[in-house]
Structure formats: C-alpha cells, structure tokens
C-alpha cells in the first residue's frame, strides 16, 4: 500500500478488502456506491483478474458501473439478475442494530432496491460512521422534480410530529443547480441531528406524495465490517450476534493500487 494514502482511505480499504472474501464463484453481487464501495469494486476486480473469480456485478449507480467495467467485473442490470446473493456497500452512518443512513453520494434509491433484493448485505466502513443514534448525518430523501417544493413543505410538516432534534431541510445542489440523481430526481437533505425512531420516520416519509425513497435502511444490513488504518478489521454479524477481530495484511495488495490515479 502506498504511503501517500490517507489513514481514512487505508481504513476504508481494509474493510473493503475483507468484505470481498465473502464473494464466491457464481455469485451475483450488488456493487455499492461511494468512496468506500469504490475500494471494494477495485478489490473485487483484482480477484476477477488475478484469480479468475467468476461473478456478475449489479451496480447501484452509473459511477459504479463505469468503475466495475474498468476493473474487469462483468455487469448486468437488476432485472436481468432478478435476485442477488450479496450486496457490499458503504454507509454514511450505522447504529448498534445496523440500521443505516445512506445516500450521501446520491445513490440511495438504487442502493436500497439492490440491497433489498439480496440474500445478504455487508456494509463496509471506517469507525467514524458508528453512532448511538442516527441523524447527525443529514438524511437524504429522493423526491420527484415535479412539485418538489410542495413535497419539501409536506416533509417539514410531517417532521413536526416525529421525535427529532432538528427540522431544517435543504435541497441538494450541484453547483447552483439542483442535484439530479441517476433516476432524474432531486434530493432534499433533512438536518435532524438525532432520530429517536428511524423505523417510524422511514415509514412516514415514504407515505408523502412526491417522496420516492429515503436514506434510512432499516433491517436490511446483515453485517458491518469496520476497518482501521493499521489493517485491523472488526466484523459484526447482527444475525449471528458475533463480533470478530481480524487483521488485513496490506503488503499483499500492491496490485490494486497500480490502477489508482
Ligand atoms: O449515495 C451514496 C452511498 O449511500 C454511499 O455508500 C455513502 O454515501 C457512503 O459513501 P462513502 O463511502 O464515500 O463515505
């Protein structure tokens, strides 16, 4: 591993490197989006190229589809795959029940559909994303462009009735224009600070006309792998109730970094 990688990238890499060990020949694998998931795609690409691992990837964004093709992973769409063995993705926050906030990179809709259509979801993360209560990270909500201001007002009205610490909302921008998701929608970020009941909030949001999906992933994640900059990894399996400590040997992974700009 090159010395110039930041400690946070080393931590993300360690988690990603461990997660791809769960991928086996013949699997259909959901490929998440974001900087942590990008490490996973690179690690998986290396297994495809070096070991001849035979898998099919289902990307959760156009960015991930481009990267997967670049590193040699065959990709298909979800409707062709129908059902997946495993999805590996990053997250913006996770709590003790492995409930998540996702969508910081704008890919929450495809990510939630793909993860839900998978036998198993593994989240890869560095330690900074673990929280007691979800909500410090702004909760992304994908809304259709038609009438988005009305939808935002309805969201704000609904927030009065739920137990959160903040209620400010912002339209996500790309430069001076509204951010556009892969599905052609906008994102409203909810600055809630602390969400007392994520399950209730997720359901309330999705009942609002104009809301396509929200970034709360409840009961979807099966395992989180937390990486450290020294190669330490912790695997928490919510179904088995197990916590396992291991270590990744960075020295074995030189090839992956040859591809990185
Ligand atoms: O929309 C983006 C995704 O939900 C990402 O997985 C999430 O934002 C985490 O991204 P990163 O690994 O870059 O922190």
Automatic annotation (TrEMBL):
Pathway: Carbohydrate degradation; pentose phosphate pathway; D-ribose 5-phosphate from D-ribulose 5-phosphate (non-oxidative stage): step 1/1
Record's catalysed reaction(s): aldehydo-D-ribose 5-phosphate = D-ribulose 5-phosphate
Pfam families xref list: Rib_5-P_isom_A
InterPro entries assigned to the protein according to its UniProt record, in alphabetical order: NagB/RpiA_transferase-like, Ribose5P_isomerase_typA_subgr, Ribose5P_isomerase_type_A
A GO cellular-component term linked to this record: cytosol
Superkingdom, taxonomy of origin: Bacteria
Keywords annotated in UniProt: Isomerase
Gene3D superfamilies in the record: 3.30.70.260, 3.40.50.1360
Residues reported to bind substrate: 33-36, 89-92, 102-105, 129
EC number: 5.3.1.6
Gene Ontology BP, a term: D-ribose metabolic process
Active-site residues, Swiss-Prot/TrEMBL: 111
Similarity comment text for this entry: Belongs to the ribose 5-phosphate isomerase family.
Quaternary structure note: Homodimer.
Function according to Swiss-Prot or TrEMBL: Catalyzes the reversible conversion of ribose-5-phosphate to ribulose 5-phosphate.
NCBIfam families registered for this protein in UniProt: PRK00702.1, rpiA
UniProt-recorded name of the protein: Ribose-5-phosphate isomerase A
Source organism (scientific name): Rhodobacter maris
Gene name of the encoded protein: rpiA
């Amino acid at each position: 591993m090159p010395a110039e990688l930041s400690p946070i990238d080393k931590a993300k890499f360690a988690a990603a490197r461990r997660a791809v060990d769960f991928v086996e020949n013949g699997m259909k694998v959901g490929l998440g989006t974001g900087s942590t998931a990008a490490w996973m795609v690179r690690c998986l690409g290396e297994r495809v190229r070096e070991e001849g691992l035979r898998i099919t990837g289902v990307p959760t964004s156009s960015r991930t589809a481009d990267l997967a093709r670049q590193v040699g992973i065959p990709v298909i769409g979800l409707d062709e795959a129908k059902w997946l063995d495993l999805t590996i993705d990053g997250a913006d926050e996770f709590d003790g029940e492995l409930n998540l906030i996702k969508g910081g990179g704008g890919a929450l809709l495809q990510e939630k559909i793909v993860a839900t259509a998978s036998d198993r979801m593994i989240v890869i993360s560095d330690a900074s994303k673990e929280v007691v209560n979800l909500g410090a990270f702004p909760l992304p909500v994908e809304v259709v462009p038609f009438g988005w201001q009305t939808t935002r007002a309805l969201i704000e009205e609904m927030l009065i009735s739920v137990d959160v610490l903040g209620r400010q909302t912002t339209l996500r921008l790309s430069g001076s224009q509204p951010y556009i998701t892969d599905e052609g929608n906008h994102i409203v970020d909810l600055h809630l600070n602390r969400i007392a009941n994520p399950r209730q909030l997720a359901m309330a949001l999705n009942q609002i006309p104009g809301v396509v999906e929200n970034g709360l992933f409840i009961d979807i994640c099966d395992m989180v792998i937390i990486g450290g900059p020294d190669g330490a990894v912790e695997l928490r399996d919510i179904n088995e109730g197990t916590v396992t400590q291991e270590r990744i040997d960075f020295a074995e992974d030189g090839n992956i970094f040859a591809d990185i700009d």
